[in-house]
Write a structure and sequence with these properties.
Elements: H1 2-19, H2 22-31, H3 35-40, E1 50-60, E2 63-70, E3 82-87, E4 97-105, E5 111-116, H4 122-130, E6 136-139, E7 153-159, H5 163-174, E8 183-190, H6 199-207, E9 211-216, H7 230-236, E10 244-248, H8 251-263, E11 271-274, E12 295-298, E13 303-306, H9 316-322, E14 340-345, E15 348-353, E16 356-364, E17 368-372
Parallel strand pairs: 7-8, 7-10, 8-9, 10-11, 12-17
Antiparallel strand pairs: 1-2, 1-6, 2-5, 3-4, 3-6, 4-5, 12-13, 14-16, 14-17, 15-16
């Protein structure tokens, strides 16, 4: 009886949010907030940003896509951005486990996240085992700078679940009028053919005229390129040096891909990166380097700071904020990319990927460091 009542309430909530402007729903809910209403419908009468699971899709072995309907507090997203979900892994009264997942925008204000179950991943295991249609999930607003920036020629280079933000961007760009659509190419690597995610989308993109290639890092199979290296990348994308590249995947793949791109002479300032796992290595300051007197230039803010002895062992994010700069950050673990900038001059230690630097887990390592967008 209780489950049936909850299904009715959840269905009614989706009906309202699909048809009524969320700002009106927010206005009504906030002005009629009572303990009774909150008990009757904790999805709409709430101060928390939440999403309701609408559908669960098995994409590949160990990979599920969760279609979500956020409540009226959701303010939308830009394709390529990610959301932070708060998972009650240790119970509703314990501190939630926070995980970041790239989101794919869907019609009617919905979005989806694709989650690969990791062998030791508490968060991914909990989601695979507990989330089903009707489940509620707390989250935070969409964030991240891994978004299309009006480039005319783009290569999406991804591996595994790293295809998720690329999927969102490609779909949004395909919706553009043909004459305004950039020249797109997709190269996606998976371990085996059975691990390929978004097979229908890959075929749809190819039919729309996008050059799509899949590569396998495991045993070679017909119809797929072998494991990606510099030669394979050049073969699959002869004009790779003329393209902006969006790179996303596991840490090891991204490190190797960056080395291949560098070997091909790609301008690394045109490589845009997104991580979805915490880096394997712990970021540490450069051994024996004194930061006193080091100048750090933030070109995008038109600001310059001079570090003092008090800034020793501070990350670039901490030092910048302590000197009065308004620097954006998200997870502060070197994963989400909110604080990511490009090193234009000088050296840094810690969490870097090519010339990309994650300020929250990186440190100055030369007398002058010039950073920018």
């Amino acid at each position: 009886m209780l489950e049936r009542a909850e299904r009715i309430v959840h269905g009614a909530s989706r009906w309202v949010l699909d048809r009524v402007d969320p700002q009106w729903v927010d206005y009504v809910a906030s002005n009629t907030m009572t303990d009774i209403n909150r008990r009757l419908n904790r999805f709409i009468w709430t101060y928390d940003l939440q999403a309701q699971v609408v559908r669960v899709v098995d994409e590949a072995p160990g990979v599920k896509t969760f279609e979500l309907r956020p409540n009226q507090l959701w303010r939308g997203m830009t394709p390529g951005q990610h959301v932070e979900v708060l998972l009650p892994v240790d119970g509703p009264d314990a501190q939630p486990l926070r995980r970041h997942y790239s989101a794919t925008a869907l019609p009617r204000g919905r979005f989806s996240i694709t989650v690969k179950r990791l062998p030791e991943g508490r968060g991914s295991a909990w989601m695979h085992e507990h989330l089903r249609p009707g489940s509620l999930l707390r989250l935070n607003a969409a964030q991240g700078s891994f978004v299309h920036r009006d480039q005319s020629r783009v290569l999406y280079l991804c591996a595994g679940s790293g295809i998720t933000p690329c999927h969102s961007m490609v779909d949004s760009l395909l919706a553009c009028p043909a004459g305004e659509r950039p020249d797109l190419q997709v190269i996606a690597q998976f371990r085996h053919s059975g691990d390929v995610i978004f097979k229908d989308a890959l075929r749809r993109w190819a039919r729309a005229g996008i050059k799509v290639d899949t590569a396998l890092s495991g045993t070679p199979e017909a119809g797929h390129a072998p494991r990606l290296d510099a030669d394979q990348l050049k073969l699959l994308c002869p004009d790779i040096r003329q393209r902006d590249i969006y790179l996303c995947g596991p840490d090891g793949f991204m490190t190797q891909a960056m080395a291949h791109l560098q070997a091909l002479g790609v301008d690394l300032t045109r490589v845009h990166t997104e991580r979805f796992t915490v880096p394997d290595t712990v970021a540490r300051p450069a051994a024996g380097f004194s930061v006193e007197g080091t100048e750090v230039v933030f070109k995008h803010l038109n600001r310059r700071i001079t570090l003092t002895a008090a800034d020793q062992n501070k990350t670039l994010l901490q030092a910048g904020r302590d000197h009065g700069l308004d620097l954006e950050a998200g997870c502060c673990q070197g994963m989400c990319g909110t604080c990511k900038l490009t090193v234009h001059e000088g050296e840094v230690s810690g969490n870097t990927l090519g010339r990309a630097v994650y300020l929250c887990t990186a440190y100055p390592a030369s007398r002058t460091v010039v950073l920018g967008g």
